[in-house]
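User: Structure please.
Assistant: Input sequence and predicted structure:
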Amino acid sequence: MTGVAKPSTSKTLKESDSLADGEMILATDRKRDVKRIRRSADEARRLILDAAEERLAAQGPEGIRLQDIARDVGISHPAILHHFESREGLVRALIDRTSAQLREKILSALKSKHGVEEALDANDIIANVFEALSDKGTARLLSWMLLTGRASENRTSGALVTEIADELHLQRKDSALTHNRPAPDREDTLFIAMLTASAAFGDAIIGRELAKDADLDQAGVARYRAWFAKLLYDHVGDKH
C-alpha cells in the first residue's frame, strides 16, 4: 500500500537497543542495591586489611594495589582512601595489626606459664614469629619500606623485639631464681630475640629460594624451623 509510511528500521533498532541498554543498567543497579551491605567502620577496616594481607602473602608488597583490594572486598577505591587516607596509610595499618597480633600471641605465651622451661615452648613461639613475619609477608613489606625510606615513622617491629626480649628476660630471671642459678645476662636474651627476628626476616626474603635450592618441601621447611627452635632452646638451657 502506497499510503502507509513504513517505520524506519534503523530508528527502530536504535530505540530497541537503547531500551535494552536501559533495562540492563536498571538490572545492574538493582543487583548492586541487593549486594550493597552496610558495615561499621571497624568491620570495613578489618575486611580491607584482611584482603590486603592475603595479597601481600601471595604477591609481596607489589600486590597491595588499592583497586584490586577494593574489588576483593566489594567496595570502591575511594572507600579505602576514606578509611586509610592513602596506600601508605593502609600499609602502615597492616604492619601495625600484624605486629599487635604477634605481640599478643608471644607475650601471652610467655606470661601464661611459670618457669622458662614451660614458657619457652620454642616450637610454638618460632612458629608464631615465622608465620607473622615470613609467611604473611610482613617482613618483606617492612624490608621494602626500609629500603625505600618509608619506614622512618614506623618503629613497631623494633619496639616489639625489645618488649619480647624484656618479657623473656623476666621469665629467665624467675627461672634462675627458682632453681638457684646465676641470673642470665640481659644482652644474651636480647640477642636471642634479635636472632629470631633476623632469621624470620631472612626467611621471608630468600627462604623460599633457599629451600627450593636445597630441595626442601613444606615438611622440610617445618623441620628447619623446629631445628632452629631447638637450637635456641638448648642455648637457653646451657645458660642455666
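Residues 96-238 form one domain.
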